[in-house]
Design a protein that fits this description.
With 180 residues, this protein is an alpha+beta fold. It has 2 domains: 87 residues, Ubiquitin-like (UB roll), CATH 3.10.20.30; 69 residues, [2Fe-2S]-binding domain (DNA polymerase, domain 1). Helix content is 36%, strand content 14%. The protein is built from 6 helices and 5 strands, in the order H-E-E-H-E-E-E-H-H-H-H. It has a 5-stranded mixed β-sheet with strand order 2-1-5-3-4, with helices on both faces. It is elongated. The relative contact order is 0.14. The chain binds FE2/S2 (inorganic) cluster (2 copies).
Length: 180
């Protein structure tokens, strides 16, 4: 669903008028996505999630609740995790966005990704991209976390499948590997 940050009018607008207004209000944004500079024409009221999935075809970032509660849409903005469903793309101009597609390097999975696979921290996989993005940023800030800190760090990312134990284990193992 395309999240639009404009107030909706009670009666809506004539379709032709809406189209004309939309065209007029498109804006250009420049942002760097996974290290690649992008210049895009966007609706200033669309979410970063919409831009990534619908304009850039980066569908690794998942749309869950679209309301800021599940964490499935987490990406990094200038290295900091944000909920892309609640982030207007207009605020991302001249900033760096990292999505799950940009985490592996030279064909090698990031340790968090690798251990999520190896420990069984992935079942349906829907929460995984957001979970990984949160964990990657968290381990940069806290390279030697204990399990409680890991649980706290991923508390905004909901998983309906795994019960979290395997996910926490995966992040813990990734932290160990990154220290060695
Ligand atoms: S889709 Fe963004 S928090 Fe759920
Ligand atoms: S693995 Fe299915 S929601 Fe987390």
């Amino acid at each position: 669903m395309h999240r639009d940050f404009r107030e909706e009018t009670e009666h809506g607008a004539e379709p032709a008028v809406t189209e004309a207004v939309k065209k007029r209000s498109m804006m250009e944004v420049e942002l760097t996505v996974n290290g690649v500079p992008r210049r895009l024409l966007v609706d200033p009221f669309e979410s970063l999630l919409y831009t990534l999935r619908e304009r850039l075809n980066l569908t690794g970032t998942k749309e869950g609740c679209d309301q800021g509660t599940c964490g499935a849409c987490t990406v990094l903005l200038d290295g900091v995790p944000v909920l892309s469903c609640l982030t207007p793309v207009a605020r991302c101009s001249n900033r760096r966005v990292t999505t799950i597609e940009g985490v592996a390097k030279n064909g090698e999975l990031h340790p968090v990704q690798k251990h999520m696979v190896e420990t069984g921290g992935i079942q349906c996989g829907f929460c995984t991209p957001g979970m990984v993005m949160t964990a990657v940023a968290f381990l940069r800030e806290n390279p030697q976390p204990d399990r409680r800190e890991i649980r706290e760090a991923i508390s905004g990312n909901l998983c309906r499948c795994t019960g979290y134990a395997k996910i926490v284990e995966a992040i813990s193992k990734a932290a160990e590997e990154m220290q060695s």
